[in-house]
Amino acid sequence: MNKTSNVAELQAIAKQVRRDIVEMITAAKSGHPGGSLSAVEILVTLYFDKLSHDPENPSWPDRDHFILSKGHAAPVLYSVLAECGYTPKDQLNQLRTLGCIYQGHPDVRFMPMLDASTGSLGQGLSYALGMGAAAKLDGRPSRIYCVLGDGEIQEGQIWEAAMFGAFHKVTNVVPIVDYNRIQLDGFVKDIMEVEPLTAKWESFGYHALDVDGHDIAALQAAFDNAAARTDKPTVIIAHTVKGKGVSFMEDNPKYHGTAPSAAELANALAELA
Amino acid sequence: MALTTKYELKAGMATREAFGRALAALGEENSKVVVCDADLSKSTMTHFFAQKFPERFFSCGIAEANMVGLAAGFAAAGKIPFASSFSAFVVNKGFEQLRTVVAYPNLNVKVVGTHSGISIGEDGPSQMSIEDLSLACSLPGFTVLSPADEHSMAGCIRLAAETTGPFFIRAGRPKAKIIYDSPEGFTVGGSRQLLDGSDLTLIAHGLMVAECIQAAEALDAEGISARVLDLYSITPMDRDAVRRAALDTGAIVVAEEHLVDAGLGVRVAQVAAEEAPCPMEFVGLTGYAESGTPDELLDKYGMRAVNVVAAAKKCLARKR
């Protein structure tokens, strides 16, 4: 694969990933488009620029790791892994079908190159911290990135994990909150407010960076900033738009977990041309 | 006059202490071993490991769910994590994590639950684990072990470290009577026949193994010959030992310090039903207990040799 730091090139990859996402979820007739589309720039910036990894050598011990704790956004991860060359692109539209490697939520039994099976919310950060603490014990340079949903951080285990990360100074683990402000039942502020979010993470001992989660240059700078901090772990709070890139899905709770129709797909692809 | 067996049943160390000491020894030999504990290391005895290997000991605070998730991450990164707390806490509070991030991806996590059963005594039911084996056995791929004494615990800890895959190991708080003379001979899916007999078989795990030996001695005085099996490997189970018990003796009593409807007994009954159905009786707990000394509780809640003898006679009456 060709990695790049060029923002225009990364934006082009992001657009292709968005096309993959809406196509595969339409084909599956079920899935979670909104929270997949909101996380596109985060995953593209990591996998095509900042992450140390090699699709030819997925078990490289010193590689960086990525855990999609909000596992329902699997389509964005599947598209990015396919675009990187880990998995076949021509099977993306078999998402969620019997025997397909692209399971409803990420499953290491079907995709051994994944770092974790996810889907039950609240679990990924603890797991990431175990991997990070292990890398530190071994003296490996691996960094672990963990994408959390904003609704997901209503789970108490996230805050147990945050306490652990700060207390044990697990600075090689970077949680990233995909702060798209919508969860299944509606807007986060109406279901269970998570504000003041930056202050929460800071009070738990984290260095918190608020960034525009669709601004690739800002994300690049945030990942560099996080890597440079060794006194305390960094959390990146990525302010995003649910359904980003498809106008009728943007900021619309309906598309948390509703697949587009064929007509909606055509409109979406026209916007993503 | 009761039969005198080779088992003196002297009080040894608690199985939790045997766990802690075995873990510290293991840490010496295997640098992959890491330990996570949730603010109970002086009780679970993981403090022996913590003192020797502070860099490989992770204090998780009172946060069992995170502790199990961490252990899964350690395992995914190639470590051999032991996560320990009271059984009532690590299994119940960590259950969803044991299911989704340990069992489902089949990670090499070793969970040790101490203070199991009612024999913890005065602290009462909130701290007593009477459902842990049921929950652990419900997790596909888990090996679930309940050792009876310090030697079997040492053997089971070593076995867990040397065997890839998720384990749950049950430990107790009170001093355990010594049954074995070495940590050798414990296997995944194994069992130990401690006494042979022809009239019925007494099957147990944990502290009820010693009670079954005493029950067999008492039964012998009444002319009843009882086989005693330590079925320490709850799952996978030594199906052949159960089958032979059913075929050779034609009656089985299972005794355990666990909910009677959800522990080893029902699992033995399933195997017996499949292999060689025979009359069975079950000695176990039927609900939550209370505060008291361990001995008072074991007496009141029927966890004694005398209760096993009564069940044996009932079973034999059905056999005839």
Task: Please characterize this protein's 3D structure.
- The complex is a heterodimer of chains A (273) and B (320).
- Chain A has a single domain (7-271), classed as 3-Layer(aba) Sandwich (Rossmann fold), CATH 3.40.50.970.
- Chain A has 273 residues and is of the alpha/beta class.
- The longest helix of chain A has 22 residues, at 7-28.
- Chain A is 40% helix and 12% strand.
- Chain B is of the alpha/beta class.
- Chain B has 2 domains: 11-177, Rossmann fold (3-Layer(aba) Sandwich); 192-319, Rossmann fold (3-Layer(aba) Sandwich).
- Chain B contains 13 helices and 14 strands.
- Chain B has a 7-stranded mixed β-sheet, sandwiched between helices. Chain B has a 5-stranded mixed β-sheet with strand order 9-11-10-13-14, with helices on both faces.
- In chain B, helix 4 (64-76) packs parallel to helix 6 and helix 10 (239-249) crosses helix 11.
- The longest helix of chain B has 15 residues, at 15-29.
- The radius of gyration of chain B is 19 Å and the shape is globular.
- The mean pLDDT of chain B is 97.
- Classes of the chains: A alpha/beta (273), B alpha/beta (320).
- The A-B interface holds A 108-109, 115-117, 119-120, 122-123, 125-135, 137-138, 156-157, 160-161, 163-164, 167-168 and B 34, 55-56, 58, 60-61, 63, 65-79, 81, 96-97, 100-101, 104-105.
Radius of gyration of chain B: 19 Å
Quote the distance from N terminus to C terminus of chain B: 25 Å
Averaged pLDDT of chain A: 98
Could you spell the SSE succession of chain A in H and E letters? Answer: HHHEHHEHEEEHHEHEH
CATH secondary-structure class of chain A: Alpha Beta
- Describe the strand arrangement of the main beta sheet of chain B, using strand numbers: 3-2-4-5-7-6-12
Give the name of the CATH architecture of chain A.
Answer: 3-Layer(aba) Sandwich
- Give the count of helical stretches of chain B: 13
> What is the CATH top level name of the largest domain in chain B?
Alpha Beta
Structural class of chain B: alpha/beta
Could you estimate the helical fraction of the residues of chain B in percent?
40-55%
Quote the beta fraction of chain A: 5-15%
Identify the quaternary structure here: heterodimer
Shape of chain A: globular
Uncertain parts of chain B: none
Second CATH tier, the architecture of the largest domain in chain B: 3-Layer(aba) Sandwich
Q: Over all CA atoms, what is the radius of gyration of chain A?
A: 17 Å
| H/E element sequence of chain B | EHEHHEHEHHEHEHEEEEHEEHEHEHH
Distance from N terminus to C terminus of chain A (CA atoms, Å) equals 23 Å
Low-confidence stretches of chain A: none
